[in-house]
Amino acid sequence: MTMGQQELSSGQEGSVASHETSQPQRIKFKRLDKTAKHIMNILDNEAVDKVQTEREIPDIRPGYIVELKVEVPENKRRTSIIKGIVIARRNAGLNTTFRLRRLAAGVGVESVFPLYSPNIKEMKVVDKKKVRRAKLYYLRDRMNPLKK
């Protein structure tokens, strides 16, 4: 190679290098669906942390007797106190729910509440029953599981 050819080749390399640095480097994803799930998990965890810093959320497990102050959206906002036993819990990040069973006018009533709902103003664990199951659906057949 002569001196002129070396200058041309080095000049071409310099222009290519400057062209590459002006554009941001592309990230290659093998599977886009896994990346989207990862991003959603990060956002979900951040939302859960934000809610937990705003208010205290106790550890609620099946077998716990819980008292809730729930804001009921009707014409006017009013709070009602609900006391019952937790018979199930479904862990799903920000969409975590628990199923509460209580007696209302002698009839068993089950309600599903989102754990991080803004309508739940206060949660208090009244008592803890010892259970060996994750889902206490068998309490539906019992008359009153809240009594000792």
UniProtKB/TrEMBL annotation:
Residues 1-27 are annotated as: Disordered. GO terms for molecular function: structural constituent of ribosome. The keyword Cell cycle does not apply. GO terms for biological process: translation. Keywords: Ribonucleoprotein, Ribosomal protein. The keyword Ribosomal protein applies. One of its GO terms (cellular component) is ribonucleoprotein complex. InterPro entries: Ribosomal_bL19 (IPR001857), Ribosomal_bL19_sf (IPR038657), Translation_prot_SH3-like_sf (IPR008991). It holds the Pfam family Ribosomal_L19. Residues 1-25 have a biased composition (Polar residues). Belongs to the bacterial ribosomal protein bL19 family. This is (wild Malaysian banana) hypothetical protein. It comes from Musa acuminata subsp. malaccensis.
